[in-house]
């Protein structure tokens, strides 16, 4: 499992730099970069925080993703989790963040 930075989408807002619990993300030339990707444990905090969908969680075989990528888009209290599979098909799952502790 790893994080993928898509520099062409990054707006340089720095929200990911503040949310990363390992302080691994920095801004370099106005774009977010992970300085030591091998230290990332894949918590996906940065993925959920990025408003530009510039950060994706790589879903390897260990996650059952076979190379897919997941991004998250916020819309009020809704989280739209979008998985792009290796065959380019897309699946989106929407959850309400207010229900996160419901069960």
Question: Can you walk me through this structure?
Answer:
By secondary structure, this protein is mainly beta. The chain has 2 helices and 7 strands. The protein has helices spanning 15-19, 45-49; strands spanning 2-5, 25-28, 31-34, 55-59, 68-75, 78-84, 90-96. A 5-stranded antiparallel beta sheet has the order 1-4-5-6-7. Strands 2-3 form a two-stranded antiparallel sheet. Strand 6 (78-84) and strand 7 form a beta hairpin. The longest helix is centred in the first third of the chain and has 5 residues, at 15-19. The radius of gyration is 14 Å and the shape is globular. The two termini are 27 Å apart. The mean pLDDT is 89.
Summarize this, please?
The chain has helices at 15-19, 45-49, and strands spanning 2-5, 25-28, 31-34, 55-59, 68-75, 78-84, 90-96. It is mainly β and 103 residues long.
